[in-house]
Specification:
The chain contains 10 helices and 9 strands. It has helices at about 5-15, 35-45, 75-85, 95-100, 120, 125-140, 150-165, 195-200, 200-215, 220-235; strands spanning about 1-5, 20-25, 50-55, 90, 145-150, 170-175, 240-245, 265-270, 275-280. It has a 6-stranded parallel β-sheet with strand order 1-4-3-2-5-6, with helices on both faces. Strands 7-8-9 form a 3-stranded antiparallel β-sheet. It is globular. The mean pLDDT is about 95.
C-alpha cells in the first residue's frame, strides 16, 4: 500500500492511473470496523484489478466552535496498518494547511437536505463536508465513492451534491456496522464512560422496537413513532435527546403519514459529551 500526503504527489498518482477504475473511501481516521467495511465494499465495486483509495483527513471546516476538533483522535500509523490489511491500494492523508489556502473563499452549500437534523444542530457542518468531499473528488477522480449509512443525512447530502453538480461519481452506501449489543460503531464511542457505554445501546433497541411496531401495526403514524422513540430512549438516565425524526429517505422531509416512499427513523442523542447518531429504515 502506498501512503501519500502531498497534494501534488496524489494528483500525479491520479494522473498516472487514470485508466484504472477507482473507488474512494473518505474518512477522518481513527478507523474501526465500520470504516474498514466501506473499504471492503469499495473493493467489491472495482474488483481485484481496480484501485481502492482511502483518505484520512480530520477536516477542520466541518467542526463547530464548541466541537471536538482538537480532541478528535489522530492515529495515522494504526490507520495505515488497518487499511493495508484490508487491501487498500493508496492511503491519502493530507495536512490541513495543504488542503485549504489561508485566504480560501469558495465553499459548497447545500440548502435543502442539510438544513434540518444534524444541520440544525451543527450550523456550517455540511458546508464543510460538501467542500472537502468535492475537493477529494477533484483530487482522486474516483469512479465510485463509498459512504456509510450511519451518517444517513451526510449520504443524502453527498448524493444531492453529486447530482446537482454533475460529478461523474457513483455514490454507494455501506451498511451500518454495529457492536455485539447493537451500538453503531463510531469513533466517538471512545469518549463514553463505562456507565454511558452500558446505556448507549438503548438507541438501537428503541429503533428496532419502533420499526417492528410500524411493520406489525401498533405504531400507526410517524407521530406515534417519534413519541415511542422519545419514551424509550429518554428512559436511559444519561441520555439527552438532540433530535428524533421520521423522514422521507430521499428528501429527508418529516413525514405526516407512512406511504409508498418508505421512511427513515433518524436520531441524535447525547450520552454525556459524546453525541451519537443512528438511523433505521424498513426491513
Amino acid at each position: 500500500m502506498q501512503i501519500i500526503q502531498r497534494l501534488d504527489e496524489f494528483r500525479e498518482w491520479s494522473r498516472q492511473n487514470r485508466t484504472v477504475q477507482r473507488a474512494l473511501v473518505p474518512t477522518m481516521g481513527a478507523l474501526h470496523e465500520g470504516h474498514l467495511s466501506l473499504c471492503d465494499r469499495a473493493r467489491e465495486e472495482v474488483g481485484a484489478g481496480g484501485h481502492v483509495v482511502a483518505t484520512v483527513f480530520v477536516n477542520p471546516t466541518q467542526f463547530g466552535p464548541n466541537e471536538d476538533l482538537d480532541a478528535y483522535p489522530r492515529q495515522l500509523e494504526e490507520d495505515a496498518k488497518a487499511c493495508e490489511k484490508r487491501g487498500v491500494d493508496v492511503l491519502f492523508a493530507p495536512n490541513p494547511a495543504d488542503m485549504y489556502f489561508p485566504d480560501a473563499s469558495v465553499e459548497i452549500h447545500e440548502n435543502v437536505l442539510s438544513t434540518g437534523l444534524c444541520g440544525a444542530s451543527r450550523p456550517g457542518h455540511f458546508t464543510g463536508v460538501c467542500t472537502v468531499v468535492a475537493k477529494l473528488f477533484n483530487l482522486a477522480q474516483p469512479d465510485v465513492a463509498v459512504f456509510g449509512e450511519k451518517d444517513f443525512q451526510q449520504l443524502a447530502v453527498i448524493r444531492r451534491m453529486v447530482r446537482d453538480l454533475n460529478f461523474p461519481v457513483q455514490i454507494v452506501g455501506g451498511n451500518t456496522v454495529r457492536e455485539s449489543d447493537g451500538l453503531a460503531m463510531s469513533s466517538r464511542n471512545l469518549y463514553l464512560t463505562d456507565a454511558e457505554r452500558t446505556q448507549a445501546p438503548v438507541i438501537y433497541r428503541s429503533l428496532c422496537e419502533v420499526r417492528d411496531g410500524i411493520a406489525d401495526g401498533p405504531v400507526k403514524s410517524p407521530q406515534d413513532a417519534i413519541a415511542m422513540l422519545e419514551a424509550k430512549i429518554g428512559s436511559a438516565a444519561p441520555a439527552k435527546i438532540d433530535y428524533l425524526q421520521c423522514v422521507h429517505p430521499e428528501t429527508l422531509e418529516p413525514l405526516n403519514e407512512f406511504g409508498e416512499g418508505g421512511y427513515r427513523l433518524i436520531v441524535a442523542v447525547f450520552f454525556g459529551k459524546p453525541r451519537l447518531i443512528d438511523n433505521l429504515g424498513p426491513v
